[in-house]
Design brief:
Layout: E1 5-11, H1 20-31, E2 36-39, E3 43-49, E4 80-83, H2 84-95, H3 107-119, H4 125-144, H5 154-161, E5 167-171, H6 175-185, E6 195-200, E7 215-217, H7 218-221, E8 227-230, H8 236-245, E9 250-251
Parallel strand pairs: 5-6, 5-8, 6-7, 8-9
Antiparallel strand pairs: 1-3, 1-4, 2-3
Helix pairs in contact: 2-4, 5-6
């Protein structure tokens, strides 16, 4: 069953966010029939069957404009390809959080289940079965081997790192930001001076009406913050620029 699986792993680090190439590739991948596209903040994974016509990256109907990423390198040269049991092992490591910056974090598994549920009905049966088995095997691995780790999530990691910080800036308004805001916004008896600011460098970003926190432009708050949690896609040049302007800023 696993022998027929193909996995194409495309790290987001090789692509320039919000570029035409990036958006064109994403659109083309999402429109492919009979393949499973899994996306996290770090990577894309295209999962298909070996003998499925048109399922390889080279078969994607991308225009010449989108066939190369901004670095000028061919897409195939920046893609890790796995097949058979190696492909299944790669998916297991990823879904168990073993490839995440926070080792064995659990959020990636939730993303896996949610995205697979949304695409399962359109997948061929030979692909549905091994992908569905991932959930069973991840639960077994976590219960047998990934125990005693406490709360392993990006949110819990940030809370541990910033417990004693007085002035925290959260950059972005996505899922991680919204999970952190209630915790940092509530009064803390052990750190009564703590102040939370949510900031962004993109116009139009909003928070839910009940969050109780206003968004301020990043240039108004980063020079005052002691630490910033980056919850938004941001290129390394922008981060380096901010760090040079605020050398004492703790970056998470």
């Amino acid at each position: 069953m696993f022998e027929e699986i193909m996995v194409y792993h495309i790290p987001k680090a090789v692509m320039k966010p919000k570029s035409k190439s990036f958006e064109g590739l994403l659109t083309a991948l999402k429109e492919k029939k009979g393949v499973f596209l899994f996306e996290t903040c770090l990577r894309y994974c295209l999962v298909s069957l070996k003998n499925l016509p048109g399922a390889s990256l080279s078969d994607l109907d991308l225009s010449q404009e989108f066939s190369k990423i901004d670095s000028g390198k061919a897409l195939e040269n920046m893609t890790e390809v796995y097949s058979g049991l190696d492909a299944y092992g790669f998916l297991l490591r990823m879904a168990c959080g073993l490839m995440s910056p926070v080792l064995a974090e659990t959020e990636v598994f939730g993303q896996w289940k949610q995205q697979l549920d949304g695409q399962l009905s359109s997948l061929p049966k030979p692909l549905k079965l091994p992908l569905s088995d991932i959930e069973r095997d991840v639960k077994k691995i976590r219960s047998l081997y990934l125990t005693g780790l406490g709360s392993q999530s990006y949110g819990s990691f940030c809370r541990k790192q910033l417990k004693a910080v007085d002035h925290v800036a959260i950059l972005g308004t996505g899922q991680l930001a919204q999970s952190l805001i209630p915790w940092f916004a509530k009064p803390d008896k052990s750190n009564p001076k703590r102040k939370l600011v949510v900031t962004t460098d993109r116009q139009g970003e909003v928070l839910g009406p009940d969050c109780g926190v206003k968004i301020q432009p990043h240039y108004k708050v980063l020079d005052q913050a002691e630490a910033v949690v980056v919850c938004s896609e941001l290129d390394s040049l922008r981060l380096k620029s901010w760090m040079s302007e605020c050398p004492n800023l703790k970056l998470i």
